[in-house]
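assembly run, all chains below
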Amino acid sequence: MNKNDNKTLGPRKSVSYAKWGYIFILPFFLVYIVFTLAPQFLTIYNSFFENYRSGLKQIGPNFVGLENYKALFTPDAAGTVRILKYAANTLILWIAGAIPQFVIALLLAIFFTSYRLNIKGQGFFKTVIYMPNLIMAAAFSMLFYTLFSRVGPIQGLLENWGVIDKSFDFFSVRITVRGMIALMNFLMWFGNTTIVLMAGIMGIDQALFESATIDGANSVQVFFRVTMPLLMPIFVYCLITAMIGGIQMFDVPQVLTNGKGVPNEMTRTLVMYLNGYLTTKNYGMGGAISVIIFIITGGLSGIVYKILSAQYKDPERLHRQRKGNVI
Amino acid sequence: MSKRMSDNTRGLIKLTILRVIVYAILIFLCILCLFFFYLMIVNASRSNAQLATGFDILPRENFFKNLVNAWNDTSINIPRGMLNSLIIALSTAVLTTYFSALTAYGVHAYEFKGKKFVFTFIIAVMMIPSQVSALGFIQMMNKFHLNNSYIPLIVPGIAAPVVFFYMKQYMESVLPLDVIDAARVDGSGEFRTFNTIVLPMLKPAVAVQMIFSFVSSWNNYFIPALLLDKAEMKTVPIMIAQLRSADYSKFDMGKVYMFILLAILPVLITYIFLSKSIIKGVTAGSVKG
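ok done. output:
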């Protein structure tokens, strides 16, 4: 008797069903290889070649080794290493949105799950705060542009209130452009994070909260000593996936600044940089940037993988997950 | 006795104050979420001249005029864009959910060599964004003359690791293998069992994932913008971005707000009707970037 008998169908009968397993996963892998894996290798391959257009002339493709990577990290005439500047922009924009996103989401998750507070109308609140997550980022960004532009209603309103004067332009000041991008990212993601963290808190054994309270812990102590430590795996998971999302930041700053990263390239992100090379068909430099982004996201994915596989190996936790529907 | 009373009252007052603060925060956040979209709807109902007067809190009478103008605009063919987006998003939603369920079922129900590797591989690549292979993808599609075609925007949906993972998780909680065994005893073929017995059991998961993949395809901007340059192939997000790069001063602003409204309307309507199950799906499928 095979030890797998209870878990799988395969070996129970004399007929082997293994081939059906292969048949069913075949389309997925064919498509993955053609549309993701092969392009991935092609991208890496491109990064070692000089291949661009200079005016009407096509240069390359010529093998140049690591020259594209060297060029990426060589300072330009003004002394800035552009990729580092854009990486810093991406990080700043992400952090500026992520801090309020996680603080507010954590607070809301605690409010919603508190028996003592017993918040009414949760369905309504959740529906409203999650809504921006589904809105087309390009359209949301375009909306912000029209609302905050020189002739837009917000400019007019704030002028009337005397908050800003007529010469003020939201799109020429670093902090306001970055602020708008951070605000949009915050609005688009805090509802999602709230819902995930809430499910995480609900997955924690209620008896732990009760016994902590009976032992005289106040709500702040309960939060730091009970809730947070038990929520940690899900919190870290959320944080890392948000970070991976942050590295991909493109639609919002691209449409808001019309691809220019105004003011002074202070809001140009890594993927906007990549997109620039893709539209001008500079495949060598584009390839090198892709590889760098790939390495960063690959490293972060490794952490996500660890979290997920740890949960998978722990059957007791998996059971809780199913009950609480977490992850 | 009186001390306990006052302790109780004090606790009650504290709780009430806390509640008021919490509701205030919640209401503030809701207003923040709705404010910009409310302004969008209000402004989509104002004429260009009315919009020039600045901020206004109440809708006006020009909503349908703007709608007709936007719909019939010659430079931005929004009905065509919406049709393109609809075709792509619907096909992607169907392919993604069907094949993710099929793949998950293959891994879930059968024992075969390399099964563990397959599962590990999919989880490992799940979080890697499509941007990092976009360059090779675009080069290949150009070589195959598939730019300005729906194919590169639909077919890759067959391999969606995140949806696979969701389906696998779902199967583990709802799909007992005895059911498949019973079907086999009844003489049902493997493929038929999947289509007629397994798939119906996965209905809630399939529905939720169809919505999510429809939405993300509808909103997708990065790859389509690099592939589609023929006017009649363009999708809605590309048109919206085009609006941004157009010479702004010449535009009827009422029309611009209407374009934005039209761009998000299908998703908004879906959400209004299905928000409950969508929100439920978020928690179960929190593996979304």
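The radius of gyration of chain B is 25 Å.

Chain B has two domains: 2-44, 68-284.

not gonna interpret more than that til we talk
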